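Bug #77: duplicate submission created two jobs. Keeping one. Sequence:
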Amino acid sequence: MEAIISATEGFEEKTLKKWQKISTADSQYIHIIVSGEVEFRRESDELCMFTVTGQCVFGLSAIFYQSAHMYGLVRANTVVRSIKKEAFAQLMTEKNLWPELTKVLSWYICMLSKRDDVLVARSAYSVVREFLYEINELIVHQQRDINIYDYIQEYTNLARSTIIKILSDLKKGQYIVVEKGRLLNLTTLPEKY
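Kept job's structure:
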């Protein structure tokens, strides 16, 4: 990713503020996110697919397809370079960066595969269980302040009442300690509900 960031240094940068959108509606552009934090959401239902902190490339499918099914929602000041897709493709060829871009695409495939593994054909409990482990990792390793109810609802299509019921049962079983929506302690969660 560093090589792609470096190769695009001459292009105009914009700093986007929290809650601004990065759209793929104009499929003529590839968006190089130089720094910041962006949530990637589905257009159809606003479901948050994943969040990226740092560098990434957004809108790659526009090189070959007309696809505007996702958008980026800025969560912290974010520096973006929007580059015409033809200029981007030419730059990748001139600088021999297609192998680097392949790594970026592979990362996206891994992210979406992991997300599908957590969400597709799973029970509501197993989805909540996986997200509790993920939230715990974010708290421990990135010192994130996360409301578990909101976080799980942002990344899944589960009803809030379902999330509340499962978390309430886990609290009663003393598997988790939650205070004001914040996860304070997590023990090994049961495999089945």
